[in-house]
Design brief:
Helix content is 51%, strand content 8%. By secondary structure, it is mostly helical.
Length: 133
């Protein structure tokens, strides 16, 4: 058990080490919702590799993190920001937005409509489908 704890701590330290770069890239905003002035935390987009990768890590709000951890709670028009996020230049943002939209499409007509209009690069689409919510 101690070995697992040590690995977890090392991973957390590596994520913290990229914190300034994440904040700079995200301009101190949630990379999914665009909200500023709230607590932000790193989120590794599954599937994760052996070592943290900044290109597979997003800076997201606590609210986004909660929705990613509990997708059954995801719902409502408040998440229409995903319609814009899915067109981000960052593949990791596209992946998370696509996954959240897929979850919402089970309950929300607008999310189904957005999904019908989306085109992802084949590599990004494969990543998005690799470990859905």
């Amino acid at each position: 058990m101690a070995k697992g704890y040590e690995l977890h701590q090392a991973r957390m330290m590596a994520l913290q080490g990229m914190g300034k770069d994440l904040v700079r890239r995200a301009k101190s905003r949630c990379e999914i919702t665009g909200v500023a002035g709230v607590a932000l935390r790193p989120y590794e987009v599954p599937p994760v590799g052996a070592d943290p990768d900044i290109d597979h890590t997003l800076l997201i709000s606590d609210e986004c993190h909660e929705m990613l951890e509990h997708p059954e709670r995801l719902g409502g028009r408040a998440w229409q920001c995903l319609a814009e996020a899915v067109w981000s230049e960052m593949p990791a943002v596209q992946v998370v937005a696509w996954r959240m939209l897929n979850e919402l499409a089970n309950r929300e007509d607008w999310a189904r409509e957005v999904l019908d209009e989306i085109f992802l690069d084949p590599e990004v689409e494969a990543w998005a489908k690799a470990a859905q919510l």
